[in-house]
Amino acid sequence: MLQNFPLYAYIPAKDVARARRFYESKLGFRPKQEVADGVVYEFREKTACFLYPTPNAGTSRASQAFWQVDDVEREVADLKKRGVEFEDYDIPGEKSPSGVVTAGGAKAAWFKDTEGNILAIIQNA
Q: What are the structural domain ranges in the chain?
């Protein structure tokens, strides 16, 4: 069954070099391996993502991936210090100066990478 295996995310990039600068300098990712003009980044618990070249980057209006964190406020504050700008979505009754909203039983914050991909940080409430 597929649920017994790790799941990997694909993150599209129009300009892989530009995207790598964002992911490695702003988010602190360390490349694991370069593959097919892209790069693999590994995370905890056998998860990973593949940043790959494509002209379709940034075309999705939904989140490409999210990180499940213990303290979303702390992660947002840290990323803001690194220059990451968070999105301000119009969710009725949910505005926060920190960029974090609580909805659907979770705290969440969204940001875009240099390629226009939407990424999220989620904390279960």
A: 2-124
In angstroms, rounded to a whole number, what is the distance separating the alpha carbons of residues 115 and 13? 6
CATH 3.10.180.10 applies to domain 2-124: yes
Query: Cα separation of 101 and 91, whole Å?
Result: 8
Per-residue tokens: 37: 């003009």
Nearest CA among 71, 65, 80 for reference residue 123: 71
Q: pLDDT, tens digit, for every residue of 101-113?
A: 887 788 899 999 9
Contact in structure between 82 and 73 (CB atoms under 8 Å): no
Residue type, 33: Q
Q: Which one-letter amino acid corresponds to residue 72?
A: V
Between β-strands 106-112 and 31-35, what pairing exists: parallel, antiparallel or unpaired?
unpaired
